[in-house]
Specification:
The complex is a heterodimer.
Chain A: H1 3-8, H2 15-61, H3 65-84, E1 90-91, H4 94-117, H5 122-143, H6 147-166, H7 168-190
Helix pairs in contact in A: 2-3, 2-7, 4-5, 5-6, 5-7, 6-7
Chain B: H1 3-8, H2 18-25, H3 36-46, E1 53-55, H4 56-63, H5 67-79, E2 83-90, E3 93-100, H6 102-123
Antiparallel strand pairs in B: 1-3, 2-3
Helix pairs in contact in B: 3-5
The chains are: A mainly alpha, B alpha+beta.
Chain lengths: ~200, ~140
Amino acid sequence: MTPDSLDEAFAVPTSADASRMLEEITPVSNRSRRLARDVTWAQPLLAWGLAWTAGTLGYQLVPGAAGVALGLTACAAAAAASWMVRPRDVRLRDSERRFALLWAVLFATSPLLVSVAAPASTHILIAFLGSVWAVGLLLYGAGVRDFPMAAAGLITVVAAAVVRPLDLGAAVLVTGLTGGLSMTALGAWRMRWRR
Amino acid sequence: MTERDARARGHDVQEIGIPELAALLASPLDPVLTDPARLRIQAALHALPPDGAMSFTILRKALGLTDGNLGKHVRVLIDAGFVATEENWRGKRRTTLYRSTGAGRVAFDEHVQALNAIIRASAAPPHHLPNARPAGDS
C-alpha cells in the first residue's frame, strides 16, 4: 500500500470518529514514554539497589576492612552490570545522555569530595558517599523529569541527614537501606515492561 | 456530537469565531494518518523526544498490535517519510530502531489539529460556521 493509493480511500472522519481517535492517542503516548523509561532504567536500578542493600548489610555484619571491601565489591558489580545491560531497544535523547554523563562525573569524582571532607570515621565516610550518590540520583531525576527516581534520591539524602546527628552507628544502615530498597523497588516496578 | 457531549469528553468547545474556525479547518487531515493504527504508531513515536527511538519489540508492546499488522503499517509510514529506521549494533547483534522524522512530527501535529477542528466545528453553534446562512435567507 502506498500513500498514493491511500488517497483514493481517504474519507474525512466524523466528529465521533475524530473524538475516538484523539482519545486513543493519549494512552498510547503515555505508554510509549513509560516503556522507554522502564526499558532504560529497570535493570540498572535493580543492580544498584541490590548492591547498596547487600553492601550495607555486608559492612554492618562483617567487621573491619573485609566489610568495607564487601561494600566496594557490590558497587563495582553494580557499575559493571549497569554497563552490560545498557538498553538496545530504546535510544535516549541527547539531553538525557548529558544528564547521565553528569551523574557519572559526580560518581567518579565523589572520592575527591570524600578527600576534601576528610570524614572522621568510616561510618561518616560511607554515609557521606551514599548521600553524594543519592544527590546524583536526585539531580538526574529532576533533570530528565523522572520524578520517582528523584524521589528515591531525595528520600535517601534526607534520611541520611536526619539520622547522622542522632545516631552515627545507624547512619550507614539507614542511608544504605533507604537508598538500596527504594532503588530496588523502583527497578522491580519498572521490570513490568518484560511482562 | 452535541456541545454537551463534547464537554463531557473533555474537549474544548468554547465559542470560537469564524476566522479562528476557518484557520482550524485549514489544517490538513493526512490520508496516511487517517488509519487509526497508523495514527497510534505515529503517536507512540511522537511521544519520544525528537532524537529518541525505539525497537519494533517496544513499539509492539506500546501498541498491542500483532507483528504482521505493525510491520505493515510501519512500512506505510516509512514509505510516506514519517518514520525512519536506524541500525543499532551491539557486538554481533543488530537492532533496528524506529523514530519519527521531522515531516512525521509536523504531519502528526497538523492531523491532530484537524481532528480537533472537526470536533470543535461540530460542537460550535450553527451561526458560527463559515458557510452558515441567516434563517430565511434563500
